[in-house]
């Protein structure tokens, strides 16, 4: 069984990864990926549900920042508390938008089941576009927004 200090160190590394995955292992992305896998395994054995879900949220966002959206969404799906899951999906959508993955960001936003949270995710996508981080917001396909809204309601 790992000591509390080892878990605390792992949590600190996750926090740094959430901020910028390349700061931990700038030259070795496979080491960063391995750290995220280890963090996910550790999160699975955390007994306190609140801490476990917050840890999963951090790991999911770190995976999105490491351009692994599929894994980020997989981890987000393990979060059972509705508000925490919606917040995680919002953060993933924002990361996707800032990474020029607009369609993926809209799909992710469409998975948010709360209308207000989904609108906030759409706002983040638009703001990323307006900030010049992606395709301009004026060129956002209306059909993508409508499709995401339809999928979220279903």
Secondary structure layout plus pairing:
Layout: H1 4-19, H2 21-24, H3 29-44, H4 49-65, H5 69-76, H6 82-98, H7 102-110, H8 115-130, H9 142-153
Helix pairs in contact: 1-3, 1-4, 3-4, 4-5, 4-6, 5-6, 6-7, 6-8, 7-8, 7-9
Radius of gyration: 16 Å
**Helix content percent band:** over 70%
How would a crystallographer describe the biggest sheet? none
List the secondary-structure elements in sequence, H or E.
HHHHHHHHH
How many individual helices? 9
Outline type: globular
Which structural class do the helices and strands define?
A: mainly alpha
> Regions with pLDDT < 50 over 5+ consecutive residues?
135-139, 141-154
Mean pLDDT: 77
Number of domains: 2
Percentage of residues in DSSP E strands: under 5%
**How far apart are the termini?**
43 Å
List how many beta strands DSSP finds: 0
Structure described in brief:
Helix content is 75%, strand content 0%. It is mainly α and 154 residues long. Helix 7 (102-110) runs antiparallel to helix 8 (115-130).
Structure description:
Mean pLDDT is 77; it is low at 135-139 and 141-154. The chain has 154 residues and is mainly α. It starts with a helix and ends with a helix. It folds into 2 domains: 1-80, no CATH class; 82-154, no CATH class. It has helices at residues 4-19, 21-24, 29-44, 49-65, 69-76, 82-98, 102-110, 115-130, 142-153.
């Amino acid at each position: 069984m790992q000591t509390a200090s080892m878990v605390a160190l792992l949590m600190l590394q996750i926090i740094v990864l959430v901020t910028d995955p390349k700061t931990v292992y700038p030259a070795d992305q496979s080491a960063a990926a391995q750290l995220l896998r280890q963090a996910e395994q550790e999160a699975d054995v955390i007994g306190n549900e609140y801490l476990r879900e917050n840890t999963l949220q951090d790991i999911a966002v770190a995976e999105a920042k490491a351009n692994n959206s599929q894994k980020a969404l997989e981890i987000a799906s393990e979060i059972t508390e509705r508000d925490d899951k919606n917040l995680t999906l919002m953060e993933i959508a924002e990361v996707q938008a800032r990474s020029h993955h607009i369609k993926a960001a809209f799909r992710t936003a469409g998975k948010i089941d709360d209308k207000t949270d989904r609108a906030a995710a759409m706002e983040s996508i638009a703001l990323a576009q307006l900030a010049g981080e992606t395709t301009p917001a004026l060129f956002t396909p209306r059909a993508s927004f409508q499709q995401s809204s339809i999928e979220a309601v279903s």
